[in-house]
Design a protein that fits this description.
- The complex is a heterodimer of chains A (451) and B (225).
- Chain A is an alpha+beta fold and 451 residues long.
- Chain A is 51% helix and 17% strand.
- The longest helix of chain A has 42 residues.
- Chain A is elongated, with a radius of gyration of 34 Å.
- The mean pLDDT of chain A is 85.
- By secondary structure, chain B is of the alpha/beta class.
- Chain B has one domain: P-loop containing nucleotide triphosphate hydrolases (Rossmann fold, 3-Layer(aba) Sandwich), CATH 3.40.50.
- Chain B has 7 helices and 11 strands.
């Protein structure tokens, strides 16, 4: 059959049987509208959850805990550190781009200083850990880096002689590098929200915290026996990061490793308390979480795990909606086409009498159904866009400004809209197959005689 | 046709009981017989509209038995023109579109749309309906419908024209005009015509008259006009 002839016959048939096809299209329009609406909603929920609430391109993994509670004491029975083998296994998981180990400082530390900001020198116990500087290279550039190994010490008598990134350790008479450090937003919030009020201290601007420096005495403590030879370093804050230890100070991994080896034991410099996995994409998250748990470790950030599970459930539920749509649309168009084929039996017989092959008849009917599917799909998309706009307007007027509230609750991606239209076309074409086969079966003489 | 037999599924009656028939190229053969005698069945077999039969059936030297669907469709499209008793026009199409219907399935291709339209006008003119190309088929009278059906059958210049009771639904005057038209077309070219009819005028127009009786074909007359 010639393409032009096919197009003319399809157009003429659709005009002639528009009532039948309109009847079939109503169900498809509603189905496609519902599917596009909920998929766009799910996509946006997923985006907000995984990009804003639980950033899911990184995942923190820790040894699985198995503690035993004895009254007020909790005995740790499970492993409390990751070994090099664990890191190797994590790196082999599909979807994992990089493994960034973290190491806790295993000796006490005291922070001393802050007179320039607080008006008087302060002293506080500090919990610290070391993180891979590469983890923060995206947000802090090169400010957070390993400094000790590459630094060349030289004699000095005052700070100005050592350059912008070093200070003069006056007691030793040599230049030493500032140790870069980051704190988490929670530290700043805790200080600004509670500590500063209790101690009548000034409020800190998180955006201007970089540059604040103080002395860190590693191996010293107000509560426990101090090392006989503590490390005295000067720390400079270089920024605030979600990946910093929640209530403490995060230093470059190599600096903490050196301190642990020197002040604790060589083994303490090889044991990591957790690792951060950089994930290839959000889609890989559920698989990575499952592989981590299967390897005997656990995802310490349960929010990300729950987000992954939630998005998987949402995706599965919406896929089910899609399957139902396909089934309903197929059944609907099949029913209508059965009627149309019955009505047009003689007409299709005439087409065969003048030279149509069986496949021409099948193609004609399937194409008609596909056109109905395309039109209905487009109408469904328009309906979904309108419903989404109405829902956004309602939410904008009625919902308070909640955290993470997006500008729109729907992500009507062009690819998504194209996919639902394609689904409608496919469903209708699928539904047309059986009636089309029935219409093309038998001899033209039977069709012309109405047999 | 050699020893052609036909029985409809579920029916105990054998409609055609060993038909032997040879129609020469350019001949005009009329098949007469009572209603239900098997005339339409005979034309359906020759036209490739019905493929379930026993015996041998050849048209233009080629057997129709066991022909694949695509080849049989091409045979109906290019070799045969069919005119049915009730015209079988598609009422939602114009006369021109009805007439050019076969061109949509002509795998050889007969030119662009403008050329098809010119050909449609030409054949409509030939059957006396010049200027009716744009009219919808549903607006035509019985005689006009049969003329359009005839134009449709002739559109791709078939070698064989099969007419099944072409005047069956027409009044005497209109029927006579259609008979004259078919006879004229036959006389003008090398068109082979097989017409099933009750109409004495058509029977008289043919060079042969065959009578189908009890499923068997009898030579009724050999001299026509």
């Amino acid at each position: 059959m010639t393409p032009g002839g096919m197009a003319r016959l399809v157009a003429a048939d659709l005009r002639r049987h528009w009532r039948h096809f309109a009847m079939a299209a109503v169900g498809i329009v509603l189905g496609v509208a519902a599917l596009a609406f909920f998929l766009a909603l799910g996509l946006q929920v997923r985006r907000v959850l995984l990009e804003q609430v639980f950033p899911a391109d990184r995942l923190e993994v820790a040894p699985r805990s198995a503690d035993l509670d004895l009254l007020a004491i909790r005995l740790p029975l499970g492993r409390d550190a990751l070994e090099a083998d664990d890191l190797g296994r994590l790196a082999e998981i599909e979807g994992v781009l990089a493994v960034r180990p973290r190491m806790r400082l295993t000796v006490p530390a005291l922070a001393v200083g802050g007179a320039a900001v607080f008006g008087a020198g302060l002293q506080s116990e500090v919990v610290a850990d070391g993180i891979d500087p590469e983890l923060l290279s995206g947000e802090l550039g090169g400010a957070f880096r390993e400094v000790s190994e590459s630094f060349v010490e030289r004699p000095c008598s005052r700070d100005g002689e050592c350059g912008p990134d070093a200070y003069c350790a006056v007691s030793a008479g040599i230049c030493r590098p500032y140790l870069p450090a980051v704190v988490s937003p929670q530290v700043v919030e805790l200080y600004n929200g509670a500590l500063r009020r209790a101690y009548r201290l000034p409020k800190l601007n998180p955006d201007a915290i970089a540059g604040l420096s103080f002395e860190l005495i590693i191996g010293a403590s107000s509560f426990a026996p101090s090392s006989t030879d503590p490390l005295r370093e000067r720390v400079r804050l270089v920024g605030v990061s979600e990946w910093a230890i929640p209530l403490g100070l995060s230093l470059p991994l190599g600096e903490v490793r050196r301190a642990n080896r020197r002040l604790d034991s060589p083994a303490a410099g090889e044991r990591f308390h957790s690792a951060i996995l950089e994930i290839a994409s959000k889609d890989a998250l559920p698989g990575v979480v499952a592989a981590v748990e299967a390897s005997g470790l656990e995802v310490s950030d349960r929010g990300a795990g729950r987000a992954a599970l939630l998005t998987a459930v949402i995706t599965a539920a919406l896929a089910l909606v899609g399957v139902v749509l396909v089934a309903v649309s197929s059944a609907h168009i099949m029913h209508v086409l059965w009627l149309v084929v019955l009505v047009r039996r003689r007409e299709l017989g005439v087409l065969r009498a003048v030279g149509a092959r069986r496949r021409d008849i099948r193609a004609l009917l399937v194409l008609e159904a596909a056109v109905v599917g395309a039109v209905a799909g487009l109408l469904g998309v328009v309906a979904a866009l309108a419903a989404g706009a109405a829902a956004d307007a309602f939410a904008g007027a009625r919902f308070p400004d909640l955290p993470f509230k997006p500008d729109s609750f729907f992500a009507f991606e062009p690819a998504l809209l194209a996919a639902v239209v394609a689904l409608a076309v496919g469903a209708c074409a699928l539904g047309a197959l059986a009636p089309a086969r029935r219409a093309a079966a038998g001899d033209p003489a039977d069709a012309l005689a109405g047999r | 046709m050699t020893g052609v037999r036909k029985r409809y599924p579920g029916s105990g009656v054998e409609v055609l009981r060993g038909i032997d028939l040879e129609v020469a190229a350019g001949e005009f053969a009329s098949v007469v017989g009572r209603s239900g005698s098997g005339k339409t069945t005979l034309l359906n077999l020759i036209g490739g509209l019905d493929t379930s039969f026993e015996g041998e059936l050849e048209v233009g030297g080629g057997s129709l038995r066991g022909l694949p669907d695509a080849e049989l469709a091409a045979y109906r499209n290019r070799k045969v023109g069919l005119v049915f008793q009730d015209s079988q026009l598609l009422d939602h199409l114009s006369c021109a579109d009805n007439v050019a219907l076969a061109a949509h399935f002509d795998r050889g291709g007969r030119g662009d749309r403008a050329r098809l339209r010119r050909r449609a006008d030409e054949v409509l003119e030939a059957v006396g309906l010049g200027g009716a190309a744009g009219r919808r088929a549903s607006t035509l009278s019985g005689g006009e419908r049969q003329r359009v059906a005839l134009a449709r059958a002739l559109f791709l210049e078939p070698e064989l024209l099969l007419c099944d009771e072409p005047t069956g639904n027409l009044d005497a005057e209109t029927g006579a005009a259609v008979v004259d038209l078919i006879a004229g077309l036959h006389a003008a070219g090398r068109l082979t015509v097989v017409a099933a009819t009750h109409d004495d005028a058509i029977a008289a127009a043919g060079s042969r008259v065959l009578e189908l009786r009890d499923g068997v074909l009898h030579e009724a007359a050999r001299e026509g006009r």
